[in-house]
Amino acid sequence: MKIYTKTGDSGTTGLISGRRVSKSDLRIDAYGTVDELNAYVGLVRDQPINEARRGLLKEIQDRLFTIGATLADDRVERPTQKPLPDLHDADVARLEDEMDAMTAELPPLRHFVLPGGHEAVSFAHVARTVCRRAERLVVALAAESSVDELVIKYLNRLSDYLFVLSRKMAQELGAEEVKWEPRIEPAK
Fold this sequence. Notes:
Layout: E1 12-14, E2 20-22, H1 26-45, H2 54-72, H3 89-103, H4 119-144, H5 149-173
Antiparallel strand pairs: 1-2
């Protein structure tokens, strides 16, 4: 089977319904950004510091594929013969439980943190910011089309998880957590 179909050469792509839309369509931007996020989560997963978290990070990637499929489906009624994978409240709860466990081992957060300190930590921050962008796009899509609220909730919680993960990685790597100190100069 060839990977290229040439059907997108005119700047359109097909949704699960078979409808063709512009590749710049908000729906395509939303699930394309989720795909980008998935690639960054893979990069975070591949960091040696995350050896013990690889299973969870792979699970997150699986949920992101689920979200991508959900966003690519513009059908109002979904036939029972071809069900799509779905999210569950337990997926959100799993992220919350993981955050709670990591937070219990971290010093209290009393300031904003600048991304960085170690390359692996920076990858987690990039994933977090891409997650926030995906969330914004999905919220915009939800304003004009039906989107499962659990998708938005999961992306919101995932960005929080990625932030806590970045802090935990910094702690485990012995990397400095750089406090943001805003420059405040007297008015001239």
